[in-house]
Amino acid sequence: MLSSLKIKPGRLMKTIHETADMFGAAFPWGKDPTETGLLRLALTDMDKGARDWFAKEVKSLGCEYKVDELGNQFAIYPGKDMSAIPTGVGSHLDSQPTAGRYDGPLGVLSGLEILRTLKESNYVPNYPIALINWTNEEGARFPYPLLGSSVYAGIKPKEDMYSIKAIDGSHPTVLEELERIGYKGDTECAFEANPVACHFEIHIEQAPYLERGNKKIGVVTGVQSYCWEEITVTGKSSHTETTPLDDRADPMLAAAKMIAKSREIALKYDGLVSTGLIEASPRSFNVLPETVKFSLDTRNYDDAKLDAMLVELKEEFAKIAEECIGKDSKIPITIDYNHLMTSRRAYFHEDCKDCIRDASHEVVGEEYTMDLVARACHDSKAMSTIVPTAMVFIPCRDGLSHNPREFSTPEQCEDGFKVLMGAVLRYDQLRASRA
Amino acid sequence: MLSSLKIKPGRLMKTIHETADMFGAAFPWGKDPTETGLLRLALTDMDKGARDWFAKEVKSLGCEYKVDELGNQFAIYPGKDMSAIPTGVGSHLDSQPTAGRYDGPLGVLSGLEILRTLKESNYVPNYPIALINWTNEEGARFPYPLLGSSVYAGIKPKEDMYSIKAIDGSHPTVLEELERIGYKGDTECAFEANPVACHFEIHIEQAPYLERGNKKIGVVTGVQSYCWEEITVTGKSSHTETTPLDDRADPMLAAAKMIAKSREIALKYDGLVSTGLIEASPRSFNVLPETVKFSLDTRNYDDAKLDAMLVELKEEFAKIAEECIGKDSKIPITIDYNHLMTSRRAYFHEDCKDCIRDASHEVVGEEYTMDLVARACHDSKAMSTIVPTAMVFIPCRDGLSHNPREFSTPEQCEDGFKVLMGAVLRYDQLRASRA
């Protein structure tokens, strides 16, 4: 299927590195100028730069271009039936604070490379193709991941997301930053108002299973379930120098024991528990804090196991709080749980998986193709609740991601792009065959 | 000895509460307007307010007034021999971020109450009395405690202390903030240039031993030893959602286990280990940090035991770092120790202790007086390295301090002030008897 297309080898990698260099290259780790990470937090000036560039590129390809109220960018490449709902391909251009160059940009730029290739090959698909850059996928600057795609999919109300505050600077809201950088668009942010027929996405695996299995392409069959909570442990703030151990109700000790215990529970249930954020208050070298707040990110492939992990974490944390109260302390240790989100196990669509699997067999062969479940969340998770969806994974070095050293080879990226293109065109033909 | 003096009951408490209300009252915890804590960080506008007030009060009593290069304020109350080196009494007006009303202010304001009482009683001591407000005793805003007295005592060079940065705002230095609030004085900050003959200080105990022993006055015989270190644990920053446990080199897990272990070591050596500060970087919910930095405050009454604790902490931390490296991680976990200070066991001066003990026997009686070792550091620790020094302790409720609920009764404060005055006047006579 791909043989009729004029693919330009190397151009995708060039685009990945040129856009990284222009918009947020940071944290060099090697001698080559491309060996850096990326800092492009959502709705910052750097993100605006990448967005402006994206708009210019897709317009030059003859795409219809729209921005919705949440800043999601839509580029509609023409098909034979211009009145039909477009086939969707999307990912995100924003990054984590110490990110690599691949992650979301690989998805958007592979989509762009598809449109470039189709144009240069004079290939007109049956239906239009919508290439989408989703806003704040990372949830790093505004602590709600998949923000743009979640509003689009009707999972979260627009107003709730507008009011989320940035973790940096003077804590501007999503709405304030959208307005500041000029990306609060006119198009309604809703599937019903601005639909796509499906959602395809390519991403690095962010785990080492493809690499260790010597596979080149992962057909992602779904996404594991997870829960995000903020835990606030409150005890007694007092003097580090003078307070006898038996008089302490030390939330730092309790939080430390909880974090250590959470690893044991992850092991027991074959899941993951992680703490990325921690904060003690008040902040002084010689004052035991009154509160210690930390994040808890709990994951499992199995919904029932995730639920069991959450129950056991709470039971063990309660025990630890009790144990950490000194026998002479009149003040207890209390725990407050702020539940941020639970995302249940997602199962991707058979049609989309089949298109990816077939394309992979064409590009890299069956022996280098494997099915797997995504551990991380992606915009495709939100999209899978409303339209047929699936993802292409490519290997990344040591499974490392959300790290400047994140790396996939040019060959791995190129293979992934070809599989994505093959899958999108197969789905276009599948739709036509059923019309 | 005190019977000839016109003590005004209640005035000291009035001064404590009035100055707290004017300069930094915060964190109310009870119904009475005096039931709040204090927020008066060193060299802030609030600290400047308290300093200006102090200057005005001591000048109105006829004191000679000097400010040295580190902002230490000296008020010299006249004695019969104006050419003699003054008897020193001091403490500090700055506070922790969530402090109580007593701590340092009790010391400075009790000294002020001595001067007021002497003046109203027309009592002229043999030698001048220097009342001192030391700069940044707490080490809370500028992380070097006893900052002003340490330069004065020749323990630290002036320039080193000038360059210490505030932990807040745009991190101004000590020198910048001294200049900003107008407290970089002309007097050389050095014992040799501006000497005192001794140092007396009153303070709340900040521990529960006086209260539990039903004692009213503690004669402080010295200060326990301690060590301050910043520990930086460095591992591998990666994705919380996807990184298998075996691939992690998680510095958060390692730091948590280290903090938990430090409590065991404190118990084993009958000492204290505390963590007041902790910081993970980068900061994101779904990124395992690359570094976790935490403070470690280790204390013991015995120098040898302190040393043994420090050795064992390092041994155990190294083991934990090793254990926390996943079997598939190519990146290790490393530990960096930033040693901030070690303060060895201090022994206070027999003459000063005797003066306090005798005064306490007069004011509250022998049965309510006990000797004890200070756990926390005070300006008297620095001063004890250069001149005869001792301290008066009074009980505080539940031993709680560095907390808005810190509380001593008016009677306890008044008793302490009388003992301090009795001790200062006894020392004045002792000096004269030996002249």
TrEMBL record, chains A, B:
CDD domains: M20_bAS. Keywords: Hydrolase. Pfam families: Peptidase_M20. InterPro entries: Amidase_Cbmase, Bact_exopeptidase_dim_dom, Peptidase_M20. One of its GO terms (molecular function) is hydrolase activity, acting on carbon-nitrogen (but not peptide) bonds, in linear amidines. Signal peptide: none annotated. SUPFAM superfamilies: Bacterial exopeptidase dimerisation domain (SSF55031), Zn-dependent exopeptidases (SSF53187). It comes from the Eukaryota. Belongs to the peptidase M20A family. This is Peptidase M20 dimerisation domain-containing protein. It comes from Kuraishia capsulata CBS 1993. The lineage of its organism: Eukaryota, Fungi, Dikarya, Ascomycota, Saccharomycotina.
